[in-house]
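Figure 2 data, in text form.
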Amino acid sequence: MDTAARKVWLHVGAPKTGTSQIQDLLFLNRASLHEQHGILYPADRHDDHFMAALDLIGQQWGGLEERAVGAWDRLVERANAHPGTVIISHEVFAGASREQAQSALDALDGEVHVVVSARDLHLQIPAEWQEGVKHRRRTTYAEFCRDLISESPSMAATRWFWRVQDVPRVLDYWGAGLPPERVHVLTVPGRDAPRDLLIERFLDLFGVARGWLPEASDRANTSLGAAETTVIRRLNELLPPQRLEGDVYRFHVRELLVHRTLAQRTGGAKITLPDFMADWADATTTTWVAALERAGYDVVGDLAELAPHRARIAWYDPDSAPAADLLDVTYAALEALLLDTGRLEAELDRLRRERAELLVLRQEHEELLALRQEHEELLALRREHEELLGLRAERERLATPPPPPPGLWMRTKQRLVAFGERNVVARALLRGLRFVRRR
């Protein structure tokens, strides 16, 4: 394979920068991309790249890391076997160490390009705290923010933030040894930008035309409001893993309550950056932008889009959300749980009825199998009976003695008759003899 002719686009983050939608879009259209355009998005399941990222960086993730063992090697094997363009995308890759990133780059054949998407810190900090709450974290917003800007962050949530959201660090680790033109910074447009602008930037970078993706994605990692996030955080305090197993939490809390219910609510207060962090976020962004400019990376979009956009609304502290707001959210969550309980009960009743019907069918099937077995046994007995009758007839035939050989007179008579058939005179004598005997 001519590896120099192929490109591998490795999109490594960051979280909360529109990654969910682009990944869903690529996954839904992976067959047409491969068959019609020779572009491989190597995934059979939606979480294949997520599992590969967990495996590469050795990250604990509620037990999922055990299922992820070997996922990175499998992904690399598929990517290297493809002769054309390959796209790999997951934001968890951003958490790699320098050694893990270099190991990943060394494993991939061809011309590797690294892509990091970045967004305004005034939006990323609230988004990361909220995302942590959706993954069972119990840290209050104030605790998260104060630990985040401390000299030595001590919380798992804040340490993770710096691993995946420190854009210059992520680019330094993943871009080591690559020419700067093969390291791409994709900026997330502001909230006032056209809705599809971010998707178009991704696709243009990957060399994918929008028309090549006929299957549309309706997936988005929707944000929660301040009161909604606080209700989930308090649920996390009440339901540690010892009380609610991980898969149950993922379905009932993260999927049902967060994504399908509370994220759909509108009109509530948003989570914004607290006032005491605003100047810090501004200064950090300025430092980051200067570092990116010095590195000379390819910028897709505009680094000015990373400039902080301070909230134009009054500060709403999610840790001190009014009881009325929390009660309203709790009612919505309770309603969703009760409705889903009713749906599950109806589904359970249907499955019970179906099971009863299947048990009857199984019994009838077993009875038919028994009848068939009896029929086959009867046929076998009949064949055996016929064989025995044949053997008995053969034995009787063999037991019957043969007739005695003819005597001298009979043998002489037989010879005369045979001679008479050939000789006219002899035939006349035989006729005369028979005539005399009849008289």
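Caption note: The radius of gyration is 43 Å.
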